Amino acid sequence: MDEEALLKQFAAQFAHGPDDADDTDAAAAAQGADSTANQVADDADQSPATFDTQQFLNGLDAIFDRHTAATEAGPYLEQAMVDAENAGDEAGLLTVLNETMGFYRSQGRHKENQWIVQRALELAARMGLTTGTSEAWATTLINCATSMRAAKQYDQAEDLYHQAQSVCRHSLAPTDRRLAALHNNLSMLYSETNRPDKAELELREALRIIEASSVNPDADIDVSSSHTNLALTLLTEHKLEDAHWHAAKALEIYRTGHLEHSAHYASALAGFAQVCFAERRYADAVTGYRHALAVIEECYGKDTDYWRITADNLRQAEEAAAQAGVTVDNAGVAGDAGALPQSGSRLPNSPAQGKTGANAASSPSTVSVSTGSAGAAEAVSACPVSGLKLARAFWTQMGKPMIAAKYPQYAGRIAAGLVGHGSECYGFDDAYSQDHDFGPRFCLWLTDEDYAAIGEQLEADYEALPRKFSVDAQGRVTFEAHARSDASGAFPSAGAGSTVTPRAQDANRRDGVFRIGDFFESITGYRTAPAQTAPHEWLMLAESTLAAATNGEVFADPTGQFSKTRQGFKDMPDDVRLALISKRLGMIAQAGQYNLPRSLKRGDGAAAWLSIHEFVQATASLVFLVNVPMVVGYMPYYKWQFAALRKLSGSMFALLPNVGEQLETVMRLSSAACYGGAGFGEGGKGAAPAIEKINDIVEQIAVDIVKELKREHLTTSGETFLEWQRPYVEDHIASDDPVLKSL
Fold first, then answer.
1. Average pLDDT over residues 546-572
2. Is the distance from CB of 587 to CB of 705 less than 8 angstroms?
3. Would you tell me how many other CB atoms lie within 10 Å of the CB of residue 116?
């Protein structure tokens, strides 16, 4: 069994247990929306809501207390959603949605959870929470992010977590446990995206907060959960002794507090078993997994991801024990608390490389990638890792140590990452992308004050960083101490013939040291995002421009200032989003439903082709807008428009998921429809079959769009000529600014 692969799988599903600390606290925090909702109700002279939030929470607690959640919690939550909505209690509904997200995640119901996440974000926006710093909004962001993370939608999850961080800085006390929950869940994301160093830092901070806020840390379940999570992360870093201590400490807390029948106990048991497996203590691993399975079955039943994953881990541990000739007691759950080692026990000697599974990996072969002269590069294959991964490795191995050594007083103030123009910033680069503007690079973002003090020298030190690296068979990047040799300042080749084009030099450079405001101004024309009350400015920003300002990854942001500025551009006002949806509906109707068939009938292939172009552009944009840019990002420029649309459509949470494929079919058929030719292999039958197919697809897309508008309560009309849907959508625009309304 490959230890790292098993840990990754295990951590993604189980380390926090079925009802994470963030979900438990989420219910109470979501009720913080009551004051906002009540004020809205008072202002609108609405009648009082009749949904009893506390009674709902008490009933849910009772279901979990009697261990019948597997069969009773789902129907209970679904009925509560109906009751809260019928009562017009938005705050109560938000509480129900937060609890439902946690339960669905624990059951592995990720597909269903997409609607819950979407409803929660939409509801929070409708309640006016998204522009404030309320606890309810922070909690909702955390739960939505965690649901995204569980469904492996990591980009969206990280964006939501960063939004939550910004809100939490203003809304929560330094010892509030929801802060610890946020650090815990961020650590999970970092673990699942192979950033164990960042995961460890987040977990240590979570543990510090939990212990500081606890009345009795030695008998506190949340403290134990933090120890378990930290143990699993330390295990991925091959820090076996520390991992053992924290895993055993977690079990000790359960014994001290007599909490062995808590559902979270399964997490601690399985976590300790994983550490034992890494230490090749297979009997203890089997015992821990068996005990964990019994707790999971008691609390949640067998039909869950938690039970299945733990059962598979048990099977592998039993096989490893058998191969090692270790005899394990088969009498049910053999491992009572007394059989499990104490936190102070010493470790046996462990393998030097920490590879302890039965199928431990052999030493990987490496592929060297030179960024030296062009002649040397010709003999080297293309870089086998993505630009973002290369950038992160370059930062971690070269940039971060340089800053720590030369600028220690600024290390806690410098943000780093890769955002902006370039295929790798969107995550879509490939071997073909490496012939220009490709190589190890990242951005460093400073405040104006810090840039004035160290900007020029930091830029010089950045330019002097070594850029020769190798990539092993597992995709791990290692940089070597060999500085860039060319005097041009251009990145030499990491593939064959890579050069720096004029569009990536001087004022248009894509890496190095920037003032935060300068960086965003160079992309958008704005140093910070337009005000939420300035819709005319938002409407002047192209979606592709906003995509370039909000793509990529942030590797470090100690002060949060860069992320806050970046997030400002992602937080498109909902009135603007609705206005754009209306505009897209108009163009889909005009180009696709009206002008396209008329152009085809009159035999004007060129006009028809351009109509298809306008229809496709408007429809693709509408898909991103309906899915909410704050959650999925913006549609990028034409080159990567369909790559992004395919990625979005493949997401478990996607709305209008079939539209992208339908648009590609329209484009494939356009040659035959417009010119009757053999383009794309569709010729030979004349234009008629292609025209009929395109018209059918256009109308089917319109039908799907209307269904989605109804689901979001943006229309009550079934009219499929989309021009007539615009007034219904615009009725939901709160602002009276005429720029937001159609003429």
1. 92
2. no
3. 26
Percent of the chain with pLDDT over 90: 32
- Burial label for 602, CB within 10 Å (0-12, 13-18, 19+), is exposed
Q: Which amino acid is at 728?
A: Y
| CA separation for the pair 367, 346 (Å, rounded) | 40
* Closest of 671, 725, 660, 646 to residue 697, by C-alpha: 660
Residue type, 495: G
Confidence at residue 329, expressed as pLDDT on a 0 to 100 scale: 65
What's the whole-model pTM score? 0.57
Three-state SS letters, 269-330: HHHHHHHHHHCCCHHHHHHHHHHHHHHHHHHHCCCCHHHHHHHHHHHHHHHHHHHCCCCCCC
Q: Which two tokens mark 536?
A: 């005319």
Contact 228, 198 (CB under 8 A): no
Which residue(s) pair with 696 in the sheet? none
202 Cβ partners below 8 Å, 6+ apart?
183, 184, 186, 187, 190
Which of these, 217, 188, 221, lies nearest to 202 by C-alpha position?
A: 188
Res 241: pLDDT: 87
Q: Could you give the strand order of the β-sheet that contains 415-418, starting from the edge strand earlier in sequence?
A: 512-515, 443-446, 415-418, 553-556
Q: For the segment 168-226, what is each residue's pLDDT rounded down to a tens digit?
A: 877 777 878 878 888 888 888 888 888 888 889 888 988 888 888 887 888 888 888 88
Q: Is residue 518 within 8 Å of 383, Cβ to Cβ?
A: no
Which residue has 């910033």 as its token pair? 425
**Residue in the block written with tokens 């009772």:** 62
Buried b / exposed e along 438-475 (16+ C-beta atoms within 10 A)? bbbbbbbbbbeebbeebbeebbebbeebbbbbebeeee
Spatial separation of the C-alpha atoms in residues 549 and 551, rounded to whole Å:
6
Query: What is the 8-class DSSP label of residue 574?
Result: H
Find the Cα–Cα–Cα–Cα dihedral 94, 98, 100, 101, rounded to 10°. Answer: 130
Report residue 303: phi and psi, to 5°: -90, 60
Residue indicated by tokens 């068939």: 597
76: phi then psi, degrees, rounded to nearest 5: -65, -45
Token pair 């995550």 in the structure block, residue: 427
* CA-closest candidate to residue 424, choices 498, 520, 515: 498
More confidently predicted of 236 and 259: 236
Alpha carbon distance 458, 513 (integer Å)? 7
Contact 653, 156 (CB under 8 A): yes
In single-letter form, the type of residue at position 103 comes to F
Alpha-carbon distance of 102 to 100, in angstroms, equals 5
Q: For residue 160, what pLDDT band results from cuts at 50, 70 and 90?
A: confident
Torsion sign across C-alpha atoms 590, 596, 601, 604: positive
> Which alpha helices (DSSP H) does 541-658 contain, by range?
543-550, 561-570, 574-587, 596-601, 605-626, 629-632, 638-649
Chain-centroid distance of CA 76 in Å reads 29
Residue for token digits 């890579």? 498
* Antiparallel, parallel or unpaired: β 366-369 and 466-472: antiparallel
List the structure tokens of 97.
């949605």
Cross-strand partners of 466: 483
Q: How many CB atoms lie within 10 A of CB 354?
A: 18
Whole-number Å distance between alpha carbons of 225 and 264: 7
SS (H, E, C) 653-701: CCCCCCHHHHHHHHHHHHHHHHHCCCHHHCCCCCCHHHHHHHHHHHHHH
> Beta-carbon neighbour count of residue 363 at 10 Å?
9
Of 143, 148, 107, 113, which is closest to residue 33 (Cα–Cα)? 143
Are residues 29 and 182 in contact, defined by beta-carbon separation less than 8 angstroms?
no
Of 7, 459, 90, 476, the residue nearest 270 (C-alpha): 7
